[in-house]
Design brief:
This protein is α+β, with helices and mostly antiparallel strands. The longest helix is centred in the middle third of the chain and has 23 residues. Helix content is 63%, strand content 13%. Strands 3-4-5 form a 3-stranded antiparallel sheet. A two-stranded antiparallel ribbon has the order 1-2.
Length: 268
């Protein structure tokens, strides 16, 4: 409380109050070093260079924020579910910090309106930009205020105003459907293969290992006690890889273009 009074008093002496007030509405507290948050909202397409060719954008803060956010969410779930095992906690954390969730969260909070980027917002921008900015924003909170503020921001703002943990914990993800829809939307060819099948002697049940490829490029592997389960796990790995790795998507785009060229040559 006393620190909040000091920060409010400091605001009186700021020449430009509007950025501080905008961030306070989002954060619930006043930032100390506003430059951290400004950097967090700077997409790599708008990279600035300082003396010594130091590159300024939000990628480094995104790296830090990703790690801190994962730790904070793990901490919150560990305390919230004292009787749940590692598998449940890991799956739920993955749902809460996945790219789709962070993209939606950034829009709900209004961060998407503050992100700075160069040029027109393409589909690639929209797929990653807001979620990446949120992670960078979280990294800025950590550097500006420390771990406890990250905890309170996640607990009292994110999980009280925007995300219901209990509802998320009950949702079932059909990653195979998600992956197929994504491939069809962007006209990628995909294939699921059973790469191995064996009988477990202790259970006398089969276990399958599946692999998914897109445009002939390996994307994920999964195992399970049915073909459906192994397909789901392989699709989950592939889908997460696609949503988190823009460079990998570019590899798939290149493969799709080469396939199209070969088809055109055959037709000619």
């Amino acid at each position: 409380m006393f620190q909040n009074l000091i920060d409010s008093f400091r605001l009186l002496f700021q020449k430009e109050k509007e950025p501080f007030l905008q961030l306070r509405n989002i954060l619930g507290f006043l930032p100390r070093d506003i430059r951290l948050y400004q950097t967090a909202l700077m997409h790599k397409s708008l990279t600035l260079r300082e003396k010594g060719e130091k590159h300024i954008n939000n990628e480094r803060l995104e790296y830090l924020g990703d790690a801190v956010l994962s730790a904070v969410v793990a901490d919150i779930l560990y305390q919230r579910y004292p009787n749940k095992q590692e598998g449940f906690l890991t799956t739920l954390r993955s749902k809460l910090v996945r790219r789709d969730t962070l993209n939606k969260l950034a829009v709900q909070m209004g961060l998407d309106k503050l992100v700075l980027y160069s040029g027109r917002a393409t589909s690639a921008h929209n797929s990653y930009m807001n979620g990446n900015a949120f992670e960078a924003f979280f990294g800025a909170i950590y550097l500006d205020r420390g771990y406890e503020y990250c905890m309170s921001f996640a607990r009292d703002v994110i999980f009280k105003k925007y995300i219901n943990i209990e509802e998320v914990s009950k949702t079932e993800e059909n990653y195979k459907s998600k992956l197929i829809e994504w491939c069809q939307k962007y006209q990628f060819e995909f294939k699921f293969d059973i790469v191995s099948q064996k009988i477990l002697q202790d259970r006398n049940t089969p276990k399958f290992v599946s692999r998914v490829t897109i445009e002939g490029v390996y994307c994920g592997t999964g195992d399970g006690y049915s073909k459906k389960e192994s397909h789901q796990k392989a699709a989950q790995q592939a889908y997460k890889h696609i949503r988190r790795n823009a460079a990998f998507v570019n590899t798939l785009i290149d493969a799709r273009s080469k396939r199209a060229e070969v088809q055109n040559q055959k037709e000619d």
